[in-house]
Amino acid sequence: MKRILGLLITTIGILLIGSFFIFTPNHAFNPADSVSGVQASAGIVYGGFITFGVGMVIFISTLPFAGEKSKNS
Fold first, then answer.
1. Are 55 and 12 in contact (CB under 8 A)?
2. Nearest CA to 4 among 43, 72, 58, 73?
3. Distance between alpha carbon 65 and the CA centroid of its chain, in Å?
4. Could you read off the pLDDT of 20-44 as tens digits, one per residue?
5. Digit-coded pLDDT (tens) for 16-26
């Protein structure tokens, strides 16, 4: 169950990152302009990176260590 939850959270993070890079207008990527920074949705993109990282940590914690037998076998 934790494995599926980790993959689901990772997928949500990837979708957040990808969608806000795709749907942000090209002229809004100037970090020096405060109005463009708000329009670029940088906070949501960074939130997507954090969500992706949390999902990866949850997923990797379900994997067995090297040389260790799986709990299922």
1. yes
2. 58
3. 24
4. 878 776 666 555 665 655 566 777 8
5. 888 887 877 66
Which residue type occupies 73? Answer: S
* Average of per-residue pLDDT values in the chain: 80
Per-residue pLDDT reduced to its tens digit, 51-63 = 999 999 999 998 8
On whether the CB atoms of residues 5 and 58 are closer than 8 A, the answer is yes
Q: Which distant-in-sequence residues (6+ apart) come within 8 Å of 20 by Cβ?
A: 41, 44, 45, 48
**Phi, psi dihedrals of residue 39, rounded to the nearest 5°:** -70, -25
62-67-70-73 Cα dihedral, nearest 10 degrees? 170
